[in-house]
Amino acid sequence: MQRIDFDTALKLYDADFFDLGERADSVRKKLHGKKTYFNVNRHINPTNVCKDVCKFCAYSASRKNPNQYTMTHEEILRIVEDIDKRGAKEVHIVSAHNPNTGLEWYLEIFKKIKSAYPHIHVKALTAAEVNFLAKEYGKSYDEILDLMVENGVDSMPGGGAEIFDEKVRDYICKGKVSSDEWFEIHRKWHQRGKKSNVTMLFGHVENRAHRIDHMMRIRDLQDETGGFNCFIPLVYQMENNYLNVKEPITANEILRTFAISRLVLDNVPNLKAYWVTSTVNLALVAQEFGANDLDGTIEKESINSAAGAKSANGMELEEFVGLIKDSGFVPVERDSLYNEIKVW
Ligand code: V47
Prior knowledge:
The protein is an alpha/beta fold. Helix content is 43%, strand content 14%. The longest helix has 18 residues, at 208-225. The model has no long low-confidence stretch (mean pLDDT 94).
């Protein structure tokens, strides 16, 4: 199949809605049939104290949220002990950029989890955090990435990507990891034989061309390394932040963006509808627009729920599986690297 170029991708936004859905669905079917993947996982956000000032963020304690917290390692280990007993396979650990804890505090979280629970996959540290730790503690990216591997990080989540267009990025998260730095960090991670994900925060001040540009830049690195497991379009949540967006993005535009990303990112195997930001209902519909992964049960999440997502307490496994089945797809529990664990 011919590769979709920038202009063609942009025009797809004006295509007939259902034709577009069907095109994305045919790619999804070729890759995954009717399977929808999910993961029994737990998100842990160990601190919300942040040096950075992203306008879209409602989680950071230094901005609209006055309730600062930093978890102790014991608190984090108690959570992991509990989820391990209940069959979770992955912890997804993302923090704010806290300049008060020291580098060791970050690294020891992973080391302690890995030594007590070697079978649990540790997905941790976004490229934004890697960049923060490198700059704060005078290390190179290579040094931080090597320390991550040594301390038990298995894969990297896709956060901190936001929108790669430099002007938009400058407006929404000035001072945070730049787009080039974000890619440099993931390239280096992939060169270590490791996998990562990539997100896109959309539905705020960016336009359609910025989204396509974002996808194109991902496709370029993926051609080079093949290290991205999945693409995750994150729908912007409007509450409690400084971006001051008045109109929410429409469901139609969200689904078009899912479908177009499935078509443009022909080299990224999985497209995740992260139900936390899209709502569960729309994530289920997104299965018809190219999405083949619904992330997981999550249990507790603080970053997106701080900005209005109705997700704070996750979802029960049986309910999750039931929803996928009822929508006509086959729920497949996967591990963090997309090996199948159980067809439900
Ligand atoms: O990078 C922050 C986003 C991300 C808002 O890799 C917001 O499997 C919406 O990256 N509205 C963190 N989003 C979450 C993330 C993620 C989530 C699920 C799975 C994976 C994965 C990664 O949350 C941040 C930022 O882009 N975010 N504020 C907001 N107001």
